[in-house]
């Protein structure tokens, strides 16, 4: 049983439950019995990760304040419930406009999780095939040896295993060169390895999935995400693209780190060219719904077979094991399809982070605990990585403690 106040659908705190339950003295006796029953039910049903979630809110606010990050938001969900959602700071520096739960951020590379899900949906509907060569949909794409480009499939594109040099031609995107002028440049490249054999993180090549999706469905990428994901999940603020972001009145503006502190900058359209890799915008309310769907609570939107497909480990990503804030916890790391698959102190963790000028994002969830967390910041700060690593360490520490406690009781 989950207690709800008349004003909120979230689980109430203990003092809120008591306030809601107690009635005037005329019905005090009846109310007291109900209050005790309800309080016991609430206690029995309370999440073992509620305290960690409450503590995380304090850490989140302290870290952002200490690092002078302009603003941010986070949400922690368990199953189909929000354990904690909180916002911090301003939509832009020196503004009076506070960030709230509907403030829209750029998701940067967390956008890849949406692209992978959409592609997998189409594969499971036999509209695409993971083994199709990308040249079937993008004939202008060729490598120095044309026969090598024929070997790169849709699965290699989404699974970051094309064999191309990491971040191929991102520098041209940074310079705001148009994508149609970048694609011919690939004809100068020789791959590092055969497709499927090594990890090779891409943004430009990852977005080659867009023509495959659009040609096979006859719809735009943005309209497909809206139709298949945003609308059925009630992600009301979510959108794709630069124009859609600029049309949002309630949006977080970007800030870059300088020697004199954070500086507000303009939103650039360059990486929005790469819609599958970095084109999605969303609020923390939207991301709570995205998390819940990926935890398996919306099987009509994201089926179990799609979830299994995109989170099956692919190529090993050894570089991830050297991440400054995470290396003490990670035992192994792979890339699935649009998601990173971590062995975090012996526990599976599904993860992705994102960065684009002025924004950093992070999403992760435990498929075994049905617990997930998202953070969105409108200022570039490593605090997000520190917060995420420590949170998951605390979660799995608690899980192991509860498992040991349960084992001891059975003996």
Give a written overview of the molecule.
- The protein is an alpha+beta fold and 411 residues long.
- 37% of the residues lie in helices and 17% in strands.
- It has 15 helices and 12 strands.
- The longest helix has 28 residues, at 383-410.
- The chain is globular and about 60 Å long.
- Residues 1-44 have low confidence and may be disordered.
Topology overview:
Layout: H1 14-21, H2 28-45, H3 50-66, E1 71-78, E2 81-89, E3 104-106, H4 111-124, H5 146-149, H6 154-158, H7 170-174, H8 179-182, H9 209-217, H10 221-230, E4 239-240, H11 242-246, E5 255-258, E6 261-264, H12 275-278, E7 280-283, H13 284-297, H14 304-310, E8 330-335, E9 340-344, E10 347-356, E11 359-366, E12 371-377, H15 383-410
Antiparallel strand pairs: 1-2, 1-12, 3-7, 4-7, 5-6, 8-9, 9-10, 10-11, 11-12
Helix pairs in contact: 1-2, 3-15, 4-14
Numbering strands along the chain, what is their spatial order in the largest sheet?
2-1-12-11-10-9-8
Straight-line distance between termini: 30 Å
Which structural class best describes the helix and strand composition?
A: alpha+beta
Arithmetic mean pLDDT: 90
Tell the overall outline: globular
The strand count comes to 12
Question: What is the succession of H and E elements?
Answer: HHHEEEHHHHHHHEHEEHEHHEEEEEH
- Low-confidence residue ranges: 1-44
How would a crystallographer describe the biggest sheet? 7 strands, antiparallel
């Amino acid at each position: 049983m989950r207690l709800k106040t008349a004003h909120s659908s979230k689980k109430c705190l203990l003092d809120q439950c008591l306030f809601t339950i107690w009635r005037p003295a005329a019905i005090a006796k009846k109310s007291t019995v109900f209050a005790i029953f309800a309080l016991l039910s609430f206690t029995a049903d309370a999440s073992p990760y509620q305290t960690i979630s409450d503590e995380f809110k304090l850490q989140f606010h302290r870290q952002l304040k200490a690092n002078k990050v302009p603003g941010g938001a986070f949400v922690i969900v368990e199953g189909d419930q929000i354990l904690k959602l909180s916002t911090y700071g301003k939509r832009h520096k020196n503004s009076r406009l506070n960030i709230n739960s509907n403030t829209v951020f750029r998701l940067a590379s967390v956008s890849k999780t949406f692209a992978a899900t959409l592609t997998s949906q189409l594969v499971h509907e036999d509209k695409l095939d993971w083994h199709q060569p990308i040249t079937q949909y993008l004939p202008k794409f060729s490598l120095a040896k044309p026969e090598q480009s024929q070997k790169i499939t849709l699965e290699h594109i989404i699974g970051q295993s094309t064999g191309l040099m990491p971040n191929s031609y991102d520098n041209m995107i940074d310079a705001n060169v148009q994508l149609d002028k970048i694609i011919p440049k690939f004809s100068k490249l020789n791959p590092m390895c055969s497709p499927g054999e090594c990890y090779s993180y891409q943004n430009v090549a990852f977005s080659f999935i867009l023509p495959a999706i659009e040609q096979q469905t006859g719809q735009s990428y943005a309209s497909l995400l809206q139709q298949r994901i945003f609308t059925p999940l009630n992600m009301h603020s979510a959108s794709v693209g630069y124009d859609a972001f600029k049309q949002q009145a309630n949006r977080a503006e970007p800030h870059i780190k300088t020697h004199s502190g954070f500086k507000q900058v303009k939103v650039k359209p360059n990486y929005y060219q790469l819609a599958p890799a970095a084109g999605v915008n969303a609020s923390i309310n939207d991301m709570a719904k995205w998390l819940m769907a990926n935890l398996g609570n919306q099987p009509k939107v994201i089926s179990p077979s799609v979830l299994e497909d995109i989170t099956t480990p692919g190529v090993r990503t050894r570089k991830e094991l050297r991440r400054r804030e995470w290396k003490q916890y990670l035992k192994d790391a792979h890339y699935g399809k649009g998601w990173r698959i971590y062995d975090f102190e012996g526990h599976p963790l599904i993860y992705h982070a994102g960065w684009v000028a002025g924004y950093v994002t992070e999403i992760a969830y435990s498929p075994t605990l049905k617990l997930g967390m998202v953070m969105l910041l409108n200022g570039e700060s490593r605090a997000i990585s520190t917060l995420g690593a420590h949170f998951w360490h605390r979660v799995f520490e608690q899980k192991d403690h509860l498992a040991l406690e349960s084992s001891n009781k059975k003996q």
